[in-house]
Each structure stands twice: as C-alpha cells, then as structure tokens.
Amino acid sequence: MSDAGTVTFAMFQQPEEAAMAQAYLAENGVESHLLGEVIGTTLNYFGTATGGVRLQGLVVDSERAVELLTALKRETKPKKGRVALSSMQRNR
Fold first, then answer.
1. What is the DSSP secondary-structure string of 11-79?
2. Residues 6+ apart with CB under 8 A from 2
3. Of 10, 13, 47, 86, which is most buried, counting CB atoms within 10 Å of its CB?
4. CA dist 29 to 15, 23, 34, 84, 92, Å?
5. 62-75 vs 15-27: helix crossing angle, rounded to 10
6. What are the residues whose beta carbons fall under 8 Å from the beta carbon of 63, sequence distance 6 or more?
7. What is the pLDDT of residues 2-43, one digit of tens each?
8. pTM across the whole model
9. Could you tell me which of 7, 53, 4 has the C-alpha nearest to residue 30?
10. Given CA atoms 6, 33, 90, 38 in this order, what sign does their dihedral have?
C-alpha cells in the first residue's frame, strides 16, 4: 500500500484491538495497515508517547472503513468473555 492517498481510519492504545479492527476490515474487503504496532507491542510503555497504533488505509476506503469500525465498536461493547474496542479513537 502506497503512502500516497492514505488516511488514518482510527487510533488505538492497544495493538491487539488495532489488529482485531484490521482483521474485521479485511473480512469486509477493506485493505489497511497498522502504523506503530511494533513499538506498541515490544515497548508498550512507549505506545502512548507515540500516539498509539494507527489503523490506516486508502482515502477512497475511508468512509466504508469508518462505518465498519463504528459498527464493530457497537458490537463489541463489554460483555462477559468479549473484548471491547475501548481504546479506539476516531481520527478527526
């Protein structure tokens, strides 16, 4: 994926949540990549300082990606045995 024409769909404090959101987008036909995942995973105390993990993709996919991520966030409200996308922040 080229850097030209990319946008941040969402930001996460937890790399695991970012990976889950990326997988959800892929299942729904939206290509994306994670920026900051390695430092967030290996040096978790630096994750917050670097702004967390960014879920990025093509500008042309941004509207669909935000719709999907919003739906995913609603679906994953904390329930027993489920992980919530609590640290997801929409890029504004």
1. EESSHHHHHHHHHHHHHTT---EEESHHHHHHSHHHHTTTT-EEEEEEGGGHHHHHHHHHHHHHHTS--
2. none
3. 10
4. 21, 10, 16, 22, 23
5. 120
6. none
7. 445 999 999 988 888 999 999 999 999 999 999 988 665 555
8. 0.70
9. 7
10. negative
Residue 84 pLDDT exceeds 60: no
> If you average pLDDT over residues 61-65, what whole number do you get?
95
Nearest in space to 12 (alpha carbons), one of 89, 92, 69, 91: 89
- Give the pLDDT score at 92: 45
At 15 the pLDDT is 87
Structure tokens at 38: 């390695």
In the chain, where are the structural domains located?
Answer: 6-90
Residue 10 contacts residue 55 (beta carbons within 8 Å):
yes
Report, at the CATH architecture level, how domain 6-90 is classified.
2-Layer Sandwich (3.30)
Q: Which pLDDT score, from 0 to 100, does residue 64 have?
A: 96
